[in-house]
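Support request, please re-run this one:
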Amino acid sequence: MIMQPRLYLYLFLGVAWLASIFAAVQEFFPERFGLLLTITYPFLLTLLVLVYRKNYRTENCHSSCYFKFGVGYFVALTCLGLINGNALRVISFDAITYWTLLMAFALGRYDQFWVALRSPAIVISTVSALCAIAFTDPAIIENRGIINTQIGSHFESSLVLAPLLAFGFVCDAKPFRITLFIVVCFLCEFVYIYFGRRGVSVECALQILVLIFLSSFVTRRQLIPSLLLILFIVGLAKYYSFEPLTSRFQSSSSVMETITVDNERIIELTDMISQFNTPEIIYGRGFGGSYIGTLGIEDLITGDVYGRIVCHSSVANAILKGGCLLCLTMTYPLWLLFYRSIFQHKRESISYGIGFASIIFFIFSLSGGGITYSTPFQTLAVGLILSRIQVK
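Re-run finished. Output below.
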């Protein structure tokens, strides 16, 4: 008997979630089990695309010129990596990452997929947020340096799904459902603040504000999310100290200097580009591409450098692997989606809300959101956003 699309979806989500948090549970599994999960989830995602193509023929995602260009560029970057002599292991991991992106793009054009993903997104983000809090030492509030030693930190990358799906159904979901989505977004925001995350905490806060505006004022149906926001802010202001987080925005001089001169992401990007020749700026170093760089401000002081195969920001990572061509290919649709949401899309459509999500994602892709084989849900989210460029 052929399995239903939802069963394939649940199987993929389960494997992808285990792959994303494997570092937290690796002591309970054989050493190579994590590698098996990493290889399996893109295979299951590809299978899911074939299932949706078979069951919903009216939405033929493979007719998209954008998708065909993506497949061609995927092959080209793989060949470029091999020609440059990049490490085969890293080429394989990059191939997994961008194949996942392509398959997510294919799935995102099916409205049925978004509908099927709603409930799992709430469950995954909620469970991940609770685990992130439960398995992290409260001492992190005063000493953020211990974050990489905490089991809870490995659950953070799974929080991206709930805010994305909330945007997808912000204007046509039932009042209770969108309120539930926003509550989960509040929970995700608390995790980011708890971990002292600068960029993503601001990004999630902006997402919540836009979601509340769209659900409460644009549709004029409910004010419950606005009341939840007020309660959330009052609660944080009364019981939580923001000093560890705000101190990360301040350098020795000012907040502005932190954003410009001492911004590690800008330093990382300029350091990487300075090592490129002109052709590499155009088409990158291919899958498996790497550069020599630091891991943070501290290393600039000590002079320590490392071989880096991935960047923190989505923009820098795209330039590393595929140059400005890949970067423009991934960022142009975000602006187009935002334009369509304002002037073209109907408020009842999934693409309407995703257009607002896309511009927020672009703004913060300069500082974070880098996609890798170990963050399947982040990669899935990027592909789903890009997919709506072909959907009216």
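Residues 314-343 form the longest helix (30 residues). DSSP finds 18 helices and two strands in the chain.
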